[in-house]
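Illustration 12: ATP-binding protein.
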Amino acid sequence: MNPAPELGPQLKQLRLSGILDSLDARNREAIQGKLAYTDFLALLISDEVARREQKKFSSRLRRAQFRTTKTLDQFDFERLPNLNRSLVHDLATGRYLQEKAPVLIVGPCGTGKSHLAQALGHCAVRQGVDVIFTTCASLTQSLNAARATGGYERKLATLARVPLLIIDDFGLKPLRSPADEDLHDLIAERYEQAATIVTSNLDFPEWDQAFPNNRLLASATLDRLRHNAYCMVLDGASYRAPRTAAGSVKPTPAKAAK
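Figure caption equivalent — predicted structure in token form:
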């Protein structure tokens, strides 16, 4: 007798309806393998746990709002021979998350800063950590929009609490008021309370240029970001360089006119 029709409503009441997806297959497996009742039950519970973990993972991945699926396995370390691979793999373990330490990644355009930041974010998601990925411009715009609707404090508190916040393209555009103050407030709230990853095209000594109107605010913000931070410099050729067709001849520069 098929037990599924009677078990269905009860499993749904107990919020275990996912067991129905594997019940028939596990039932046949138990009969063929002459499994003990406890072993059969263990298989069903294991399936349910795996299903719930996958659901949680998918939910965290969706909330993270990554641009693309960039993982560490896809990162081309060969293009960056000077990059400290040991540090990257150590960060992938998530130790900096427990330390609530910043991770700062700088380098020219196209060297893989966003890829590396998102890859570390994916590692965190797989470890059960909530992550938010955003550009610096989108972050400050969202805070300013929340201010306009009276929800600034709530938005700031939400961003301050997320265990890992990834801020991409810091310094790409100069921070004008109130964006510079909003970023400072957020970094101050997260300081030693949660981990933050920041990527930038600016070299570390140039970061204060992102605050053209308030050097004091720049100093206060960057001092918190740099404290106990893990720093990486990605120095190599851009992977966005145009491809040359096989067998084609590269154009030679034109001679200057006499």
